[in-house]
Amino acid sequence: MRKWTRVLFPVIIIFILFSFGFKPVNVNVTVPEALRVKGPSEVVFPNHKINFKKPITTPPFLGTSYNGFKEALAFKESQGNYFTTNAFGYLGKYQFGIGTLELLGVYNATLFLNDPILQEKVFQTNLSRNKWILRRDIKRFVGKKINGQEITESGILAAAHLAGAGNVKKYLRSYGKSDVNDSFGTTVSYYIKRFSGYDISHVAPVKNPRI
Description:
The structure is a single chain. This protein is mainly alpha-helical. The protein contains nine helices and two strands, in the order ααααααββααα. The model is unreliable at 40-58 (pLDDT under 50). It has a domain at 66-194: Orthogonal Bundle (Lysozyme), CATH 1.10.530. A hairpin with a 2-residue loop joins strand 1 and strand 2. InterPro entries: Lysozyme-like_dom_sf. This is Peptidoglycan-binding protein LysM.
């Protein structure tokens, strides 16, 4: 009798529970009037417009070394972008024209634009070329002041890259009277001042260098 009781008792309990069923408990929740949503919510977003297509960049600071010189110049030209072409057709990080590229031995503009290593080589080769063209002017004018600005080798060569070696010669030899603008309206004197004081003494002047 005890054996059957042990078996039947759990079965009876389960049967009783199922007979009542499992009914959900109704709980009435009252939402306060202040918290009720009566319409679409406004999206929280800054009031000023953000252009996500154009990355926020800052000029690099690498001191007065050669790397500091070329990166500062590149930032002025293209914000350091190897793969850009401006409205006048100048290419790459240092904004070279087709004529200058061909003069240095580069004839494929697409290849140049997609090759950062080649662009760096072209920049240094052109720097050596300008240093040769302006070698006498560098020797003559470095350390002197024109229009209140001390002339430095890096200022001369930066201006030559940005405005042309011929225009830099005219500026120096006229003692600042011939101060031409580049395509964007920036003067030779501005470039000489903006890029003064960098150490690029290790760059050797080379006559008619080629890549």
